[in-house]
Amino acid sequence: AMPKQAPSLHFCLAIAIARGEYCKARSRRRSADSLVCTQTRRTEFTPRLQQAAHKPQRSPNKTKMPKKAKSTSFGGQKVTPAGKRHLESRAPKLRENPKTLLCLRGSKTSTSSTAALKSLALLLKPHSKVLDRKREDLKPFDDCSSVEKLCASHDASLFAIASSSKKRPDNLVLGRLHDGHLLDAFEFGVVEAGGPCEKLLGSKPCTVFVGDFDADPIMKRVKNFLQDLLRGPDVDRINLAGIDTVVVVGLREDTISLQPHRLRLKKGSGSLPDTRLEVSGPPLSLKMRRDHQPSLELWKASLKQPKGLKPKKRKNRSTTDLGEVHGRLHLGNQKVDELQSRKVKALKRSRDEDDE
Length: 356
Fold this sequence. Notes:
Blueprint: H1 9-54, E1 72-74, E2 77-79, H2 81-90, E3 101-105, H3 111-123, E4 128-134, H4 145-153, E5 158-163, E6 171-178, E7 181-192, E8 206-210, H5 217-230, E9 245-252, E10 255-266, E11 274-279, E12 284-292, H6 296-303, E13 317-319, E14 325-327, H7 351-355
Parallel strand pairs: 3-4, 3-5, 8-9
Antiparallel strand pairs: 1-2, 5-6, 6-7, 7-12, 9-10, 10-11, 10-12, 13-14
Pfam family, one: Brix
Region (Disordered): 46-85, 267-288, 305-356
Organism: Pelagomonas calceolata
């Protein structure tokens, strides 16, 4: 057997060249096929591209605007429904909301004036608001515009301002507004700050005035202001368990003291329970300094009562001391001869009686 000869160098080179040409031709064929596919895809998507080209493009800086809220009219002005509800809550009513006390702090305060302010806020809670930020423009006796703006923004008609200075240390100013304007204000010096007297939620504190408030016209107005401050909301019925606090307001010379008491109900011999008063904390003692009197026109306007709340007059009706109601009827002149009475056969006259 003849031995196998190794392939020559020329033969190997020829095979390598042939393989390279084949690979090149194969790659060319693939590229041509891919080119045909891309052209067909472009022809398929040309209508969509043309439609997209005709659409107006949005500028990059343009943002999407939110939808406008539906507007309604209130008092001749266009407002949103939420704004209308807010304005209706602030509008005048036949039965107004309970008065709110706005507690403010001046540029400089002392511990006693701040403690007196907090004790008043706790006593009138939840109808009180406390603003802890110190303010420099709170001078109701000089310029009351800042106080009126703050009370209008917080829907409050009563205010209390705590301040302290070298001329007037431990100062406390109490006042009230009517129709957004300052009605009257009183400046006190805090003699004793008193302690915290927080009442239960929903309870109705009672107020007792001890002293000759009616002898002095200024103290008479102070009593009227304190009644307005401590009255609370109007209710139709009162539960005995809800009366747990009694505030005794006393007057001695020019010093007013507010002493809170706890009312304890204990079992009694009859149907009603026995009541016991217990002192709860030190009193709040205030010494009178200055006052701001309202104008006569503004005072008369504050005393006016709306027509819807005025009770109707009951004519020809009176009530005795025993609670009996007597009525009076007014009848016109009656002609008795022309009254038609009922004819009864038993009372009819016979013919014999007529002949006689």
